[in-house]
Design brief:
single chain, alpha+beta, Thrombin, subunit H, six-stranded antiparallel β-barrel, 2 helices, 32% helix
């Protein structure tokens, strides 16, 4: 080590044509063939290592891509199956495309100019066909469903409330998927959810909303998801096929002042 340090010091401090540099040059010349031979011997091993390393990386990437293709293929098959099932179910239900709320609806806000009474559950609003309102147009408030238009003129319309004995709307419980018909109840302003089978576990406190499905046999006049009321009692008897479900409506039908009519340009089919 001492000799090496002395030679390095002499090499740096000595002139470029000195004895030390001559010895260094001679040594490099002598060792050059060995360096070239070592390089030639080592090169194939480096090439082989690089080849196998690249091959391992390519195999891993290939496996990853295969897994990705398998996953995407499964998703495509599931999507195709779901679409096929939907098409088949729509055909079985004789499904007709219905307006979608709020995309297919335009709100027309207006005031109530004639109020309901205990004996007449209808009101008159200050907007009519001049504003796009027509028969069967749904009418709501910020609280929920009010009813639908049953007669219309150019500047006004008659709205039959949900509490009228002739009113009925398809509705369901989003928590239990129980489907039935909301009708007027026994007391003033009260409602019931009728035609719900006993196997449905509807509970007090459940929110009832419009069903909004559309079929040629049971056309719905209302968009899906409009709030109607909250379940206040649930009962059933051995002699009845249906549950007895009482609903407290969100809308105060005794103090209607301003309402909104939902206008749609899409055709609403009629029941045969």
């Amino acid at each position: 080590m001492l000799v090496s340090l002395i030679l390095i010091t002499i090499s740096f401090r000595g002139p470029s044509s000195g004895v030390a540099h001559g010895i260094e040059s001679a040594g490099a010349t002598v060792l050059r063939p060995f360096e070239v031979a070592a390089e030639r011997i080592a090169r194939p091993f480096r090439d082989v290592y690089g080849y196998f390393a690249g091959l391992v990386h390519v195999k891993r990437e290939n496996e990853r891509l295969k897994e990705e293709v398998t996953r995407l293929r499964q998703q495509a098959l599931q999507g195709g199956t779901a679409l096929e099932q939907l098409t088949r179910l729509q055909a079985l239900l004789r499904f007709i495309d219905s307006p979608v709320f709020p995309r297919d609806y335009q709100p027309v806000s207006t005031r109530v100019i004639s109020f309901a009474s205990e004996f007449d559950q209808r009101v008159v609003i200050a907007a009519g066909s001049d504003h796009g309102i027509r028969n069967e147009t749904p009418v709501i408030t910020s609280g929920g469903l009010v009813g639908s238009v049953t007669r219309v003129t150019g500047s006004s319309a008659l709205v039959t409330l949900l509490t009228d004995e002739n009113s009925a709307v398809q509705a369901y419980d989003p928590d239990t998927r129980a489907v039935g018909l909301v009708r007027h109840g026994q007391g003033e302003g009260s409602l019931v959810l009728d035609k719900v089978t006993k196997d449905k576990n509807v509970e007090v406190g459940d929110i009832i909303v419009t069903l909004g499905t559309r079929s040629a046999q049971y056309p719905s006049l209302f968009p899906r998801g409009i709030p109607i009321g909250v379940v206040t009692s649930v009962g059933q008897s051995d002699s009845s096929l249906w549950k007895q479900i009482q609903i407290d409506p969100f809308v105060d039908f005794s103090s209607l002042d301003a309402v909104t009519a939902l206008i749609t340009g899409k055709r609403i089919p009629k029941a045969p």
